[in-house]
Amino acid sequence: MILPIVAYGDPVLRKVAVEIDENYPDLEKLISNMRETMYNASGVGLAAPQIGKAIRLFLIDASPFAEDEDLSEKDRAVLKTFNKVFINAKIIEEEGDEWTFNEGCLSIPDVREDVVRKPKITIEYQDENFKKHTENLDGLAARVFQHEYDHIEGILFTDKLSSLKKRLIKKKLENISKGKINADYRMRFPNLKKGK
């Protein structure tokens, strides 16, 4: 089932999400619905807060990036198979010289900005069977992971922009929170109080 994606301005996007265990109700169905929702919106990642659930769960399918001719053969091979569910994820270490890449977000349609992140990370997470993994990621795989991880920490990519950039997109963000946006997918907008 395709779920509505929560728009910028909803308080759930600012919550630090809570850990879950294998007893979380209907987890398999939730993951399936999230995957369908992500593909419907042409996303490469989707975090549970983006569908209104403040739990430490996100999924990634970075295979669309594997088509990018500018990437190395090695990077494209990694991205082609980078399709995973991440539960209770943690970043253990971030390293390397920061690099800039243009990011967007399904909760913030029509806003894309350059974001600076570390290129290499070491992560721990559980998969959908609650098997624990420790992995090293770099390049675009690390970046997509960091973007989705930020969601379960209550952080949006727009938080990482300079104060000037934030001022330049302020009106766009306000319009998104008020539902004044045309997205190609279902969205849920925050309930705004009258007079605001």
Automatic annotation (TrEMBL):
Record EC number: 3.5.1.88
Catalytic activity: N-terminal N-formyl-L-methionyl-[peptide] + H2O = N-terminal L-methionyl-[peptide] + formate
Co-factor: note: Binds 1 Fe(2+) ion.
Catalytic machinery residues: E148
Native source organism of the sequence: Polaribacter aestuariivivens
InterPro entries recorded: Peptide_deformylase, Peptide_deformylase_sf
Taxonomic superkingdom: Bacteria
Metal-binding is among the record's keywords: yes
Record's keyword annotation contains Transit peptide: no
Pfam families reported for this sequence: Pep_deformylase
Protein name: Peptide deformylase
A GO biological-process term: translation
Residues annotated to bind Fe cation: C105, H147, H151
Keyword line: Hydrolase, Iron, Metal-binding, Protein biosynthesis
